[in-house]
Amino acid sequence: MAAIRYRLLKQATLLAIFFVWWGIFGFVLPLIALLITKAPGGTSADITIPLLIFTVIASFTGIYSDFKFFIQTGMNRQNIFLVNLVTTVITSLGTGLLMTLISQISLKKLDLSLILTSDGFYDHENLIIYFILNFSILLVFSTMGLLLGTFNDMFSGVKKIIILLSVMSIPIILSITMQLAPLDVQLKWRDFIKAFVGYSRETGFSALPFIETLLVVSIFFFTLFYILNRSHQIRRRGA
């Protein structure tokens, strides 16, 4: 479908710009600095945080222009949702693969490994598990970007502020409730958090349960995006 190719090309262009930027500042410059200073120690360049931030930005930007363009070309909202679903999954797969391959590069004084898959976290001998974990994390942040972009385009002014404050109040209310809850409820809540991140006392952090959590969160975000997309209307900037 032309719409999928169009959206993929835009996403690929943005990601290419990011990887060029990271290649310069996360790889080349640290190597030059190590060669010049001849420091006895090494340095690390974890791509995870900047890539996740950029993933949200890449999904966030273009929602207004792409939605307007698709509507004007006669696409219905169902197909617009499917285009975003397919392109988000494909770009997350491709970026997750690059992320996994980069983390396997081993240099003497430049560590490119990912903290999430290091010892003490989601360390695993299977490279495929690494890839699926990276893909799942990217998928969550990509769908989050879609949600934020759609929300930003749909609401404005006081209505947007009220909704944002309402959402921000949820963790505060939960925190207060848990602190005042009976001890058995607090323990159950802690067990839930541990299960959510795939942690157990016996095995530590486990990648597979965490991957399951991430995929469930992605489905939840896609569901919210589908609901918002159905009522998404074209509005003028400044309206």
UniProtKB/TrEMBL annotation:
<keyword id="KW-1133">Transmembrane helix</keyword>
<feature type="transmembrane region" description="Helical">
    <location>
        <begin position="12"/>
        <end position="35"/>
    </location>
</feature>
<feature type="transmembrane region" description="Helical">
    <location>
        <begin position="47"/>
        <end position="67"/>
    </location>
</feature>
<keyword id="KW-0812">Transmembrane</keyword>
<keyword id="KW-0472">Membrane</keyword>
<feature type="transmembrane region" description="Helical">
    <location>
        <begin position="207"/>
        <end position="228"/>
    </location>
</feature>
<protein>
    <submittedName>
        <fullName>ABC transporter permease</fullName>
    </submittedName>
</protein>
<feature type="transmembrane region" description="Helical">
    <location>
        <begin position="79"/>
        <end position="107"/>
    </location>
</feature>
<feature type="transmembrane region" description="Helical">
    <location>
        <begin position="127"/>
        <end position="149"/>
    </location>
</feature>
<feature type="transmembrane region" description="Helical">
    <location>
        <begin position="161"/>
        <end position="181"/>
    </location>
</feature>
